Amino acid sequence: MIDFTLGKCKTRAAYSAKLRKQGVLDLKKIARKFTVVLETPIVLVISISGIEVIVHQYGELVFKKCEDMELMERIASEVYEMGFGK
After folding, report:
1. Could you give the CA distance from residue 83 to residue 14 in angstroms, rounded to a whole number?
2. What is the CATH classification number for the domain harbouring 29?
3. Cα–Cα distance for residue pair 84/55, rounded to 1 Å
């Protein structure tokens, strides 16, 4: 289980998940599992269950246009497990 927080962004009208301990996500692994909207070397935009998620390599996830906390927690867990998985 990856330890993260989920809350409203202070700077944007969105929600974000942040790792409690620093880490680097494997964006290539994440890109293989989810539908990719945009891919750069340090940021990935993916679509999961109709929600766009901005995945930063340093571990922050930003959820666009979503208010469902349960869904965001489930998505964050999935993305983190894939990004840190062996």
Report:
1. 22
2. 3.30.310
3. 13
